[in-house]
């Protein structure tokens, strides 16, 4: 099985035989000069999108020119707050396709629900926009590969919203792992201990005024509206979200793979369920997943817990790496500590952040994909390993995977879950 090094990832390409898609028409990329003002549109502004807005507005010579959200109440409230904070008006759109038609927009920042991430990013690439896309970059494994292909075909800069990759401390921690500080690194553990309460079961209700429910559902099959979906708890329904391993957990899956220097696994085992609440969530509250790499002699463990729990060496959300000379604890997005030898003597440690938005802007200005800290191939891998764990959980059995072909070995039932049935016109194309 191929190891994905950072060099591999940054040079990732797709076959030249990929067929052209007739629409949408690609717009020639802008050649930015040092003083050119960059215009960004933020798509999805109710949750993470708020951070996207402030993150880009802090950048030199960058303006958030357009806000886009399918909920017009959220959109107009967001535009008003934007004007009050920045003393400038901002354009508003409910339909992201109109944003892509605007040739004055240089880049888009996507913070929609998960089931829209890949298609929104692919359409943006086809429209000649560079893309910052929230985690997970895709709702299933098929979409992730298509996004990688689209970024390569249309030569777009695509940054995955895993901000820990721009942390100076975490970059230093990875270098320590590569340099052998804790010896042979054989195991990575990701922990996602978040407070996730009972959401009840609110049943069906009329679509709220201002919400384009058809557009919100997008690639998913039609469901009646429920307040359980909008605006956050969609995370716990398979049509829209991926549970916490595919939510907060993407930061941890990404760091596990980065630290171990591996790609997708060969064997996946998962177990869990709903043990706390009798609510309408579909995804598991508790999930333990193991990803094995027998050829490399490495293993990843992911642990999701939703309520009362202990910490692991002070970590609720983070990662632990184990080597034959010590171990490393990464707490959150910008802090690491190391413990060496049998007596766990404190080793190197650091707490320092970074600016993931600036990294994206710098790469766009330079038109240089190799500058990205969270490039599109890593986005596909980090999301896909979470999807593999969810498939193992949903089927209730150990799965065997071919990481080169990106398919399960002799398992039609599992392979059918690598993609989904799409709803026209919101279709992730097989040929981008």
TrEMBL record:
<dbReference type="GO" id="GO:0016491">
    <property type="term" value="F:oxidoreductase activity"/>
</dbReference>
<protein>
    <submittedName>
        <fullName>Inositol 2-dehydrogenase/D-chiro-inositol 3-dehydrogenase</fullName>
        <ecNumber>1.1.1.369</ecNumber>
    </submittedName>
</protein>
<feature type="domain" description="Gfo/Idh/MocA-like oxidoreductase N-terminal">
    <location>
        <begin position="38"/>
        <end position="161"/>
    </location>
</feature>
<dbReference type="InterPro" id="IPR043906">
    <property type="entry name" value="Gfo/Idh/MocA_OxRdtase_bact_C"/>
</dbReference>
<feature type="domain" description="Gfo/Idh/MocA-like oxidoreductase bacterial type C-terminal">
    <location>
        <begin position="356"/>
        <end position="427"/>
    </location>
</feature>
<dbReference type="Pfam" id="PF19051">
    <property type="entry name" value="GFO_IDH_MocA_C2"/>
</dbReference>
<feature type="domain" description="Gfo/Idh/MocA-like oxidoreductase bacterial type C-terminal">
    <location>
        <begin position="175"/>
        <end position="255"/>
    </location>
</feature>
<keyword id="KW-0560">Oxidoreductase</keyword>
<dbReference type="InterPro" id="IPR006311">
    <property type="entry name" value="TAT_signal"/>
</dbReference>
<dbReference type="InterPro" id="IPR050463">
    <property type="entry name" value="Gfo/Idh/MocA_oxidrdct_glycsds"/>
</dbReference>
<dbReference type="Pfam" id="PF01408">
    <property type="entry name" value="GFO_IDH_MocA"/>
</dbReference>
<dbReference type="InterPro" id="IPR036291">
    <property type="entry name" value="NAD(P)-bd_dom_sf"/>
</dbReference>
<dbReference type="InterPro" id="IPR000683">
    <property type="entry name" value="Gfo/Idh/MocA-like_OxRdtase_N"/>
</dbReference>
């Amino acid at each position: 099985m191929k190891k994905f090094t950072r060099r591999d990832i940054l040079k990732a390409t797709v076959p030249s035989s990929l067929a052209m898609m007739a629409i949408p028409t690609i717009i020639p990329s802008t050649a930015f000069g040092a003083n050119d003002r960059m215009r960004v549109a933020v798509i999805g502004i109710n949750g993470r999108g708020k951070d996207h807005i402030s993150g880009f507005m802090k950048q030199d010579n960058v303006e958030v020119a357009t806000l886009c959200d399918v909920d017009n109440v959220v959109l107009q409230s967001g535009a008003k707050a934007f004007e009050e904070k920045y003393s400038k008006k901002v354009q508003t759109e409910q339909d992201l396709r109109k944003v892509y038609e605007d040739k004055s927009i240089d880049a888009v920042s996507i913070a929609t629900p998960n089931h829209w991430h890949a298609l929104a990013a692919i359409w943006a690439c086809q429209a000649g926009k560079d893309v910052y896309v929230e985690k997970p970059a895709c709702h299933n494994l098929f979409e992730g590969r298509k996004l990688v292909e689209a970024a390569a075909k249309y030569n777009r800069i695509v940054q995955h919203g895993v901000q820990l990759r721009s942390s100076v401390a975490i970059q230093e921690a990875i270098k320590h792992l590569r340099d052998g500080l804790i010896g042979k690194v054989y195991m990575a553990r990701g922990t996602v201990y978040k407070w996730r309460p009972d959401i009840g079961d609110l049943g069906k209700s009329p679509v709220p005024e201002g919400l384009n429910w058809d557009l919100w559902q997008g690639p998913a099959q039609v469901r009646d509206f429920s307040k359980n979906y909008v605006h956050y708890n969609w995370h716990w329904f398979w049509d829209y979200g991926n549970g916490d391993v595919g939510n907060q957990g993407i930061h941890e899956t990404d760091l596990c793979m980065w630290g171990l220097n591996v790609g997708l696994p060969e064997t996946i085992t998962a177990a869990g369920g709903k043990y706390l609440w009798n609510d309408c969530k579909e995804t598991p509250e508790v999930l333990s997943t193991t990803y094995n790499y027998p050829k490399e002699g490495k293993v990843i463990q992911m642990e999701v817990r939703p309520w009362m729990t202990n910490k692991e060496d002070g970590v609720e959300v983070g990662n632990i790496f184990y080597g034959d000379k010590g171990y490393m604890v990464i707490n959150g997005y910008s802090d690491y500590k190391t413990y060496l030898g049998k007596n766990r003597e404190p080793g190197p440690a650091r707490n320092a952040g970074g600016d993931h938005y600036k990294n994206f802007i710098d790469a766009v200005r330079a038109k240089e994909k190799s500058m990205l800290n969270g490039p599109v191939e890593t986005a596909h891998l980090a999301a896909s390993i979470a999807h593999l764990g969810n498939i193992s959980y949903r089927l209730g059995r150990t799965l065997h995977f071919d990481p080169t072909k990106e398919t399960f070995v002799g398992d039609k039932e599992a392979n059918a879950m690598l993609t989904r049935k799409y709803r026209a016109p919101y279709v992730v194309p097989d040929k981008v």
